[in-house]
Amino acid sequence: MVLRKIYRNYLQNNLFMRLLLLFSMITVLTIISFSYFMYYSMSQAAINRELDIQKKALTNVNNYLGGKYDSAQSILFGLYRDSSLASGVSFMLQHPFQEYVQHGLEQYNLGGNSMWSDGLQYFKNQVEDNKDISNLLLYSEDQQTLYALGQNGQMKFVTANRARSYIPDVMALESKSVELPNIWVREAIGQWDPNLYAIRTPITDKLTLKTIGQQVVYFSTNGIWKILQNDKDELKGMILVLAPDGGVLFDSSNQYVGKLYPHMDQINAMYENGGSSQGDYVTKLTQSKGNFSTVSIIPRKELDASSKKIGSTIFLISAICIFFAILIPFLVVMSVAKRTNQIIRFTRKVKQGDLSVRIPDVREDEIGQISRSFNEMIEELNLYIDRVYKANIKQKQTELTALQARVNPHFLYNTLEVIRMRAISQGAHDVGEMIYSLSALFRSFVQQKKIYTLKHELEACRLYLELFQIRYKDKFTYTMDWDRRLGSVRVMKMSLQPIIENYIVHGLRSESSDNELHIRVKQVEAFLHVQIEDNGNGIAPQRLKELALFLQDEELEGESFGLRSINQRLKLLYGSEYGVKLHSEPGHGTTIDIWMPMDGGAEVDDV
């Protein structure tokens, strides 16, 4: 009841209030939709930006660790390239330390070089040149001994007897992956720095190709922190470097360093470059060198915090826009309504016979012009009320008659009947669309063009078909298959549309839902070939023969007037090889072939 009362008092007889309400609803819905779209787009952009930053950091870390893996391998490659150095290191790893020292002294006394000194100095130089190396370990499988070099240049010699140590068992496990330092090795060399990762590589005798030991390089994770320093302020969540067994080699949050990552099964199940785990955003990169993975994990709540800030800003801006979008039109509409009501009041006075009234509106806008026109009309009406008024009425009637005569009555009546039936059956919801298509179609008929092309004619057909597609919604479809390069070919006006109209009037099956019409245009040598095919009612054989005869008759009003008109005009303008041909089968449809010249009759105006 309240809503009905409000409608009756404020909206029912108030056009401007209805327009204002409609405009406000459209504006509010538009701003809300646009705001949501902006919020969604900006949130996704923010998330993608954060993920790109994380991925960039992951790539840098991944490449850095890959480089460290290569540097660990290059130590042995340099060893293998020097034959004397390689044989000396092989001798050291395959003989007791005292025997190797004695062998070195003998070589020195004989005037040779001490292979042990060369080997030791080579590995010392490698440690000194790479500040990220914390320790370099050499393990002898035959002697079960461990040589450990540190950054201080000192070497520690450790006996790793299998009966008293797990080191031989650890070293027996072949691995070329990046991994956590083994706790037994750590204990043996006294290295307990948690920020280390190990790269282990077998050492092979160059002559026998037998594995004689292991090289283990302990790298510090300080280099990874330096890689991440540039993006430190923008990084969210945590970045992990994981060994194949789940050991955490590096953790930017220092939560899992040196431990096994508890959700390794979920990380292994992910595809590379992206995924989600427990609602978090996860990015994963796998390095084939060393078989380790770098993983970025960003909690969803951290990204949602950024989205909330964006949402609050957009909400505030949207509220301000809605306020002014309603306030400004309201003030404008109220001003226009006030002036319009003034015109209505004066119009009523004229209706009552008072021809002395004048509207006092001196503004230069449209309503001011209406007011001045109203005043001028009253003045003219006073002077010429009889002669001028009656003459104008007769002139308008003449113009209307002339305009009506220009429109094809057959086409106009069919079209208006369809619109009327559509309005009755559907409550006039689609009338606006149909009238728009109809007006555009009439405009194309009435407008005079010096050059009328295939593109113009197909557009007229499209407008006509769109009109009837609305009428036969879900019952009728059409297609146009034509080469856009043929659009500039000149054609005769109304050369295709009457054929389309014949199909709608005579061929379309209104009770069926699979009505189809296909228009195909192509160039065949010097001809422009247009084929119009439908699956309509078709034409009986006897009637088809009659139509073939009718096409040869002179153009007369009546049934099949359009086909005869097109056929006769084509033959008269361009020659007997051009024209219209019919093919039809009852119940299966009709195919109409129209043959026109490719030059479009350049010397002939539209007919």
From TrEMBL:
- State where it is primarily located: membrane
Name the chemical reaction catalysed here: ATP + protein L-histidine = ADP + protein N-phospho-L-histidine
For whether the record's keyword set contains Nucleus, the answer is no
SUPFAM superfamilies noted in UniProt: ATPase domain of HSP90 chaperone/DNA topoisomerase II/histidine kinase, HAMP domain-like
HAMP domain residues: 334-386
State its location(s): Cell membrane
Q: What protein does this entry describe?
A: histidine kinase
Q: Which organism is it from?
A: Paenibacillus allorhizoplanae
